[in-house]
Specification:
Blueprint lengths: L1 H17 L1 E9 L6 H15 L5 E4 L1 H9 L3 H6 L4 E4 L10 H5 L4 H23 L4 E4 L8 H9 L4 E3 L26 E3 L2 E4 L21 H8 L4 E6 L34 H19 L4 E3 L2 H7 L6 E2 L3 H10 L12 H12 L4 E2 L18 E4 H9 L11 E3 L2 E3 L1 H14 L3 E4 L34 H6 L6 E2 L1
Parallel strand pairs: 1-2, 1-8, 1-9, 2-3, 3-4, 4-5, 5-7
Antiparallel strand pairs: 6-7, 6-16, 10-11, 12-15, 13-14
Helix pairs in contact: 3-6, 6-7, 11-14, 12-14
């Protein structure tokens, strides 16, 4: 009997672990037409009636428009749901990617911070202070600068930043591709990235000639392959047949501010059919034991304190990095940048490092081109001068010799583990492996969405690549 109870409990635990977590996300954007606000209200109310919390990533200026239009019915409908940001003006130029593609990182950061702090202020004014817990870039506007800004604004989650499932689309070609259950979660540059599903999106249930409603059983079977997915839609598409921004801001600002072209309305009968299908899909998912519907506030509440790194952890970290110069997954989730911070602090005589905000580089790190010997005392002296509160330099000077950041890290770990007085650093790759985000290695997002022709992605994607040391899996 005891064995049976144990096996039952074990199977229940395994089943719980196998659940696919699903979040419903809503790219809530259209500030050009008040009819789109009806769809926000109706979808929010439908979700609430089904006991589901939606995640509404709302353009900052749309929050201001809701107050201006006195749409308190919409604001009230969103009270039970999770609020996120989809930047200040979405597609209006310069958009968040165009701001980030600046030769000066400092200037790109200041410009982006000015816009996004304003966006959060608009969300606070409409929905209450501190409601924003995630953000989502418009289109393919993945920006390390934006990740940095939102981290500093206290927003730890991002959605739609290219951390997709294993299907690519033309919009996301060359971006981060995230296979399903092989990765339990992905942190990059101090943000947890939740993947948008490209297998199925909620707008595929819209009535379209020649396209029947998807087979929910077949859809759920495909979605159950993954550990976490965001199913998304644009609320305005429930009542519109075109996207608002394609008429106003595709590759340029084509209208005067507030003199917008309004997207054509959808037939109200088709809208009603869509709502019926959406409700049926929610009920089918809730009835399927393979799925757990969650939200970003629940994820935030589930975050656990990070495990500190002490001297006892050095051997296992060093062994892991020698085997695969990438994120460390055992005995805890640590990035290469965490390992570097710990090594520097331990060399300084500190007893441990409690993981916090980490940085990669702003320019390509430069390693040694031939073997070089450095002493433990030289490493300790150099460690005292390393600023761990900002981006790491491309190289360090240790005992009068230039060595790369990875050279320094491996030399420091060897000294800390073995107590050696001198170590030899040899030529090696300095960034590590893009195994967990292969698309980042070659990505370039210029010309693939609504950005202006002047946007060339000269700096944006490279800066994202240079944050590879911050990647960790959890």
């Amino acid at each position: 009997m005891k064995k049976l109870l144990f096996l039952t409990a074990l199977l229940a635990a395994l089943a719980a672990e196998a659940n696919t977590k699903i979040m419903f996300l809503f790219d809530t954007e259209d500030y050009t037409c008040d009819r789109s606000n009806d769809a926000i209200r109706d979808i929010a109310n439908m979700l609430a009636s089904e006991g589901v919390r939606g995640n509404f990533n709302i353009v900052g200026y749309l929050a201001t428009r809701l107050l201006e239009l006195k749409r308190h019915d919409v604001i009230d409908a969103l009270k039970s749901h999770v609020i996120g940001s989809q930047t200040l003006y979405h597609t209006r130029h310069p958009d968040i990617a165009e701001l980030g593609d600046n030769p000066s990182y400092e200037q790109a950061y200041r410009l982006t911070m000015a816009d996004e702090a304003k966006a959060l202020g608009m969300l606070d004014a409409a929905f209450g202070e501190g409601r924003c817990v995630f953000w989502c870039p418009p289109g393919n506007s993945v920006s390390a600068v934006a990740m940095d800004v939102y981290s500093d604004l206290g927003v730890p989650f991002s959605a739609g930043c290219g951390m997709t499932n294993d299907k690519a689309s033309p919009l996301y070609a060359g971006m981060v591709v995230r296979p399903g259950q092989t990765v339990g979660g992905l942190w990059y540059f101090n943000q947890y990235h939740a993947p948008y599903s490209l297998d199925f999106h909620l707008e595929s249930m819209l009535p379209r000639e020649g396209h029947p409603c998807p087979d929910f059983k077949e859809v759920l079977g495909r979605l159950a392959q993954y550990d976490l997915l965001c199913l998304y839609m644009h609320p305005h598409m429930a009542v519109k047949t075109r996207h608002w921004d394609s008429l106003n801001y595709a590759k340029g600002n084509h209208v005067k501010w507030r003199e917008w072209n309004v997207a054509p309305d959808r037939n109200p009968a088709d809208t009603a059919v869509y709502y019926e299908r959406f409700r049926a899909f929610i009920r089918a998912m809730k009835a399927d034991g393979r799925f757990e519907i969650t939200d970003f506030e629940a994820m935030k509440a589930s975050l656990k304190p990070r495990r500190p790194i002490g001297a006892k952890d050095v051997p296992v970290i060093r062994a892991a990095l020698l085997k695969d110069f990438n994120a460390v997954r055992e005995p805890a989730s640590w990035s290469v940048a965490d390992a570097f911070q710990a090594a520097v602090r331990l060399l300084r005589g500190e007893t441990q490092y409690v993981p916090g905000k980490v940085y990669g580089f702003l320019s390509r790190p430069q390693g040694v081109t031939e073997p070089a010997e450095v002493s433990a005392d030289e490493l300790r002296a150099a460690a005292k001068g390393i600023d761990l509160t900002t981006f790491l330099p491309a190289y360090f000077t240790v005992g009068g010799k230039r060595i790369g950041p990875a050279d320094f890290l491996f030399a420091a770990l060897e000294v800390l583990e073995t107590g050696a007085d001198k170590v030899t650093v040899s030529p090696r790759g300095q960034l590590g492996s893009f195994t967990y985000c292969p698309g980042v290695e070659t990505m370039n997002i210029a010309g693939k969405w609504a950005h202006t022709p002047e946007f060339k992605d000269q700096y944006l994607s490279e800066r994202l690549r240079l944050q590879l040391w911050t990647l960790r899996i959890e």
